[in-house]
Write a structure and sequence with these properties.
The protein has helices at about 5-15, 20-25, 95-105, 125-135, 175-190, 250-265, 280, 295-300, 360-375; strands spanning about 60-65, 75-80, 80-90, 115-120, 140-145, 200-210, 225-230, 240-250, 270, 290, 305-315, 325, 335-340, 345, 350. The chain is an alpha/beta fold. Strands 1, 6, 7, 8, 11, 12, 13, 14 and 15 form a nine-stranded mixed beta sheet that branches. A six-stranded mixed beta sheet has the order 2-3-10-4-5-9, with helices on one face. The two termini are about 35 Å apart. The structure holds flavin-adenine dinucleotide. Flavin-adenine dinucleotide (FAD) binds next to β1, α3, α4 and β11. Flavin-adenine dinucleotide binds next to β1, α3, α4 and β11.
Length: about 375
Amino acid sequence: MKQPQRQLRRDLLKTMGAGAFAASVSACAPMAPRSQQYTRPYSRNPWVAPRISMENIIREVVGHRPFRPPGFRVESEKFDDKIVVHNYGHGGAGITLSWGSSALAVRQTLGMEHRDVAVIGSGVIGLTSARLLQDAGWNVTIYTRDMARHTTSNVAGGEWGPFSSHDPEVSSDAYKSQLQFAARISHHAHTNLGGSDYGIHWTELYRPSETAEDGSEGEFAHLYPYEGVLGPGEHPFPTKYAHVSLTMMIEPATFLRRLTEDFLQAGGHFVIRNFAAKEELFGLSEPVIFNCTGLGSRQLFGDEALTPAKGQLVYMPPDPDVDYLTIGGGSSNLYMFSRSDVLLLGGTFKLGDWSTNPEPEETARIIAEHQRIFSGF
Ligand SMILES: Cc1cc2nc3c(=O)[nH]c(=O)nc-3n(C[C@H](O)[C@H](O)[C@H](O)COP(=O)(O)OP(=O)(O)OC[C@H]3O[C@@H](n4cnc5c(N)ncnc54)[C@H](O)[C@@H]3O)c2cc1C
């Protein structure tokens, strides 16, 4: 199966091989700290390397992205006297696409006379759907097995990037239009909420690479206000090039907490409940039901296209001096996100892996590869 776009970029880096990588590092061994020799293209701050070591680990975390090769599903379905609006399957981009996907889902209710709606699920998709429904005048109750802090949404790294939501070889042109639309709406909504209140801030994103071409934001370039390529000698990374752009960091814990507060303030209610089968949903009093159960839709609605993409993260203490993100620079799925609560390192993207345990060998790999990426700073 073809990999999501960001993964493809990372796999290009992987094909460089460890030897070439080490050689490029030693060939450029600096006399003085290299970060002092370079000027950052956007920020006025110096480059500061994150402190990465096994001793510095706070915690290892695992989450399962709700990956659906054809892409996320927004669609309504009629079951006797109930209308179910599906909004699930956002893979590695649910935080990013949340507002846009939920706007598409709420659009499905246009022309409906009812005013009471049940939203199932309290992750980022359930909460953004609920908020938009409230704004449109609906009375909303969220029924959920877990409150937001116990969901996959709270495990997310939180970088704004509409990638890894689908398999481009399987998804349709209609889906690609839907994705573009959702990304645009989401981008607009997230930028409106920028600031510490919602845990959203703009930041530089670096993508170390051996090629000048690999790494652009592709069909989403118009949503990145700054894009550039640093050539050899212009950056401290152990690769020939470093792509740089500006993007948003959405801190999941803050964002989800704030959405929860907004929902309650607007008169919403939570009911803690686990649904074992879709027939149980039809016993609810609300005539309209939003299905925002993420990976739970596999069991609830028998969607076998849904599969987990296991992601493993390694948390280090936060470091406010590290004011940028990196993606790539070694084997697949590497990233370093600097947030106010943690500095996190990823990761993995293991399709079909339901295991919930962190794997020590993955932690060791993630640490070692990131130590190499920042060894020239
Ligand atoms: C390691 C990792 C890194 C990530 N990084 C990013 C990133 O940087 N940027 C980004 O945009 N995305 C990222 N993601 C992806 C993002 O986390 C997901 O796409 C998103 O969380 C999906 O949200 P959701 O609301 O659909 O699902 P969830 O957060 O899983 O919420 C589902 C909700 O449904 C409820 N539920 C499920 N089944 C039932 C049931 N039977 N009965 C009652 N309730 C039920 C659950 O309790 C939960 O409340 C990452 C994910 C992982 C794992």
